Amino acid sequence: MSAEARAPEHGAAALVVATFGRHVLVETPAGRRVHCQTRGKKSDLVVGDRVRWQPAGDGGVVTGLLPRRNLLFRRDEWRSKSFAANLDQLLYLVAVQPPSSEAQLARALIAARAADVPVLIGLNKIDLPGAAGARERLAPYAAMGVPVVELALKADPAAARERLAPLLAARVTLLLGPSGMGKSTLVNRLVPGAEAQVGEISRALNAGRHTTTRSTWYWLDDERRGALIDSPGFQEFGLRQVEPARLAALMPDLAAHAAGCRFTNCTHRQEPGCAVRAAAEAGLVSASRLRIYAELYEELSATAW
Fold first, then answer.
1. Is 129 exposed, middle or buried (0-12, 13-18, 19+ CB in 10 A)?
2. Is residue 183 part of a domain?
3. pLDDT band at 75; cut points 50, 70, 90
4. Separation CA 65–CA 50 (nearest Å)
5. Peptide bond before 29: cis, by omega within 30 degrees of 0?
6. Is residue 201 part of a domain?
């Protein structure tokens, strides 16, 4: 493309749709995708970022990062891993089989709440035995106001699309969840040609198959209003970015009762007059959620602040 054709986009904002090391693929407001390099030895850009860029050779160079509305990430003892930025919501996918960890779900929801990102839970494979038990495990989340959408992505894809379409329309949604829950199936059901898009991104970044281990942006409609960001599966979800004293406030079912505690700095573990533990004893807070809180509080308390 000639310099004249590129000139109107020079210095304009662009959207990061894929990353690989110091290389990113950006999409301009006109819909053109450009392979760009970032300055410096390391790039902290993530899918969903808005950046400034300028043409350079056959591609471009990112010259700046525009302010983020939010950033969803996880942090363990050694490093941080960012998923995506500027999100409207998170869709966390679990399945009837294989059963997933409630602790990992709770961690993801805490991270989302800390980043001010609303959450949906997708329960996949409801056609399999064990659906009733899976619904029961998710009941505390539905009770605290988290929408739970039941899906059978392989057995009934039409119904899945019908249920998801109005929830994802005109929003930027990050798809998150452990491996084996059906994330790839969901993407392929909602995004025609998704595998071809991954191949195009790989070629554009000269990244080969490794690009599939990174978050990837897909438009859900021709008008480019709604988007789905697919993310890699994960084994652990660190929350070292959360201070222990803030933890209960990020768990809505616990926070609903915390104001009734005798002490304003109650940790909800052993203090007398704890309204959160009293609510758990009365069945108003699930035992598993209180256990997850206690385990997380101990884990986070071991972090030097």
1. exposed
2. yes
3. confident
4. 6
5. no
6. yes
Q: What whole-number distance in Å separates Cα of residue 216 and Cα of residue 137?
A: 30
For 274, the domain range is: 244-301
Query: Residue for token digits 């040609």?
Result: 193
Please give the backbone phi and psi of residue 52, each rounded to the nearest 5 degrees, phi first. Answer: -100, 145
Please name the residues in contact with 140: beta carbons below 8 A apart, sequence gap of 6 or more: 253, 285, 286, 288, 289
On whether both 89 and 125 belong to a single domain, the answer is: yes
Strands (E), 145-258: 148-150, 172-176, 216-219, 227-230
Q: How far apart are CA 183 and CA 90, in angstroms?
A: 13
Q: Is 283 buried (19+), middle (13-18) or exposed (0-12) by CB count in 10 A?
A: exposed
Whether this prediction's pTM lies above 0.90 is answered by: no
Q: What is the Cα–Cα distance from 121 to 91, expressed in whole angstroms?
A: 6
Q: Which of 173, 202, 230 is the last residue of a domain?
A: 230
Burial 32-45 (b: 16+ CB within 10 A, else e): ebbbbbbeeeebeb
Q: Under 8 Å CB-to-CB from 264, ≥6 apart: which residues?
A: none
Residues 136-190 pLDDT 10s: 999 999 999 999 999 999 999 999 999 999 999 999 999 999 888 999 899 989 9
Give residues with Cβ within 8 angstroms of 302, minimum separation 6: none
